[in-house]
Amino acid sequence: MRMSEGVEWALHSCLNLSWIETGEAMTAARLAAFYNLPTAYLNKQLQALARAGILTSTSGPRGGFRLARPLDRITLMDVVTAIEGGEEAFRCEQILRAGPGGSPHVDYKSNCVVSQAMRKAELAWRRELAGQTLADIRNTVESRFPGTPDGTRAWFART
C-alpha cells in the first residue's frame, strides 16, 4: 500500500499550524510556500482536513486554516482517513470462487486465509496510527529538534 504525498503534506501542515500564534489563520499559499509545494494541491488536502473536522477554514482577507481541535485529539489515522478515505487497503475479490473447488455459496472474505491475514495486518496498521496523536509527534519533534517551533514561527512572521 502506498499513501499519497498529500498525507505527508497534511501532517506537516497541521504541525506547522500548531506552532504559529494561537488563533492565527494561515492561508494555503503560505503553508505551501513553507515547503515549496503546489498551492492548489495542498489546498485540496487542507479542505479535506476541514471536511473531516481537523481544521477550520475561514474565507476573507484574514482567513485561512486553523486547527479545529487540540493536537491530542487528532490521531494519525484521522489525518490518513481524511486524505485517503476510509476504504480498506486490501480488497478481497473472492477469486477462490472461480478456482477449482470454488463455491458461489461461500463467503471467501471471511473464510480465505489470505484475506484473514491481510485484514489482520491492516488492523494492526490502523491501530498503530490511531494510537498516535499529532501531540505525540509534536512532542517528539520538539524533543529532538528544539528550535523547530521558533524557527517555524519566525519563517511565517517573515513571509
TrEMBL record:
Superkingdom of the organism of origin: Bacteria
Name used for this protein in its record: RrF2 family transcriptional regulator
Source organism (scientific name): Nonomuraea roseola
PANTHER family to which the protein is assigned, alphabetical: TRANSCRIPTIONAL REGULATOR-RELATED, WINGED HELIX-TURN-HELIX TRANSCRIPTIONAL REGULATOR, RRF2 FAMILY
SUPFAM superfamilies: Winged helix' DNA-binding domain
